[in-house]
Amino acid sequence: MAQDRKVPARQAPRTQWLAGSGLTLIVGLLSACGGAGGSVTSTPATSAPAASSPSPTTTATPSPTPTASATPTPTPSASPSLTPTPTPTPTSTPTPTPTPTPTPTPTPTATATPTPTITPTPAANFQTAEYTRSTGPSFHGAITGWAAGASGKGVTIGFVDSGIDTSNPEFAGRISSASADLAGNRGLTNTDDNHGNNVALTAAAARDGNGIMGMAWNATVLMFRADAPGSCTASTGCSFDDTLIATGIDRAVSNGAKVINLSLGGSAPSPQVIAAVTRAAGAGVVIVVAAGNDAAANPDAFASALRTAGNGNVIIAGSVNDQSAISSFSNKAGTEANNYLAALGENVCCTYQNGIIKVTVQNGQQFIEVSSGTSFAAPQIAGAVALLRQAFPNLTATQVVDLLLKTARDAGASGTDTTFGRGIMDVAAAFAPQGATTVAGTTTLLPIGSTTAVTSPAMGDATQTGAGLTTMVLDSYGRAYRADLGARLVGAQAQQKLYAALAARTDTIDTGTDRLAMAFTVDATGRATQLPWQGQLRLSRADADVAKVLAGRVVARLSGRTTLGIAYGQGAAGITAQVAGHDQPAFLIAGAPGEDTGFAASGQAAMVLHRRLGAWGLSFSAERGDAQNAAPGRLENDPSLRAARAPTMRMALGVDRQVIGIDTALIASWLAEDTTVLGGRFNPALGVRGADSLLLDARLGFRPAPGWRVGLAWRQGFTAVRGGGLTTHGALASNAWAVDLLREDALVAGDTLGLRVAQPLRVTSGGLALNLPTSWSYATLTPGYTIQLLDLAPRGHEIDAELAWHAPLWGGAATSALYWRRQPGNVATAPDDKGVAVRWNGRF
Question: The whole model's pTM is what?
Answer without folding.
Answer: 0.76
